[in-house]
# Entry
Amino acid sequence: MRYWSGIVAISGLLSASLPSGAQSQIQGTTFIEGHVFNKWTGVPLSGALVRVLADEGPPRFLVHQLTDQNGFYHFERSWSISQVPISVICGTDHDAIVGASEAPIWEGAIFRRDIYLDAPRRLKRCLPRE
# Structure
């Protein structure tokens, strides 16, 4: 398994300690994870809606989840596409703040994408928005 964050890579992270059936399951799965932060304060933003494009189902099928209290999100899937777009929406009292990134996909790897939103300094929690 490889862990990618920018140019940092760590190989063989889990495969040595897993039974062979688990190794084959992980090798076909790609993980995309990271945090959503307030760009100005560095504070993690909880409740941000993070969406990724899945390659099964109808065209433009989106998988989504909200960031936890630490601003963390995590997707565990098998993709057959080489780039996965990631979008983030953070609702505020007045409007929505939007951010985006992209993760390259290699089978059996973990890709880390932290996203920094240009949010008001006081913002620590996003309000629900779709």
The CA atoms of residues 62 and 100 lie 14 Å apart. The chain has one helix and ten strands. The longest helix spans residues 20-27. The helical segments are 20-27.
